[in-house]
Amino acid sequence: MDFDLEELVNVEQTFYEDGYKDGFAHGRIHGAIEGRALGREKGFEMWEELGFYEGFAMMWKAIVESQPVQDERTLNHIRHLLDLVSQFPRENPSASGPSELDIPKLFRQIRSRYKLLCATLGVRPTLRAADGSSASPDADGADLPEPASREREKPQGARKNVWAVQPAGQSLASTELNF
Average of pLDDT values for 25-41? Predict the structure, then answer.
């Protein structure tokens, strides 16, 4: 019987190294796949938001320019917002090498300019995401009336709506007004 006693002593370390190499190779493949999918998803979300800002600014630019008296401050905010959106890279800057562009900083500037434009216009700044929810923290829908069907689902002691919303097709003649 001829075997190397040294290999028997290092058998645990050998198994660990083999498992590490296999796991590293597996992780590299799946990490690249998951990273690409996550990058695509986040990129889509960013461009959806940028498209909203650009469309908002272009719409208000057309409205303000069609008015007989144009507000120069509003036009300046619109031009600056459109300029910031146009500075956003159309290609992945990290793929071509190191870049001096700070994308999160540019995104913060665009959001700030959008909020400033909304304040100038007297419009509530909101962004409706693709799923229909609001990304604005103050847009919780508290000022919207609830449908009558949801009123029945409320727990005891909950606040009742002043104006009940009638389903389509139901006549208002059956509504009773008490003073």
Answer: 90
Mean model confidence pLDDT for the chain:
77
DSSP string, 32-66: HHHHHHHHHHHHHHHHHHHHHHHHHHHHHHHHHHH
Output the CA torsion 57→63→68→70 (10° steps). -10
Phi, psi dihedrals of residue 165, rounded to the nearest 5°: -90, 125
Angle of the 11-66 helix axis to the 103-121 helix axis, nearest 10:
30
Task: Name which residue leads in pLDDT, 139 or 43.
Answer: 43
Please tell me the distance from the alpha carbon of residue 59 to that of residue 176, in angstroms, as a whole number: 43
Please count the residues of the chain: 179
Whether the CB-CB separation of 101 and 93 falls below 8 Å is answered with: yes
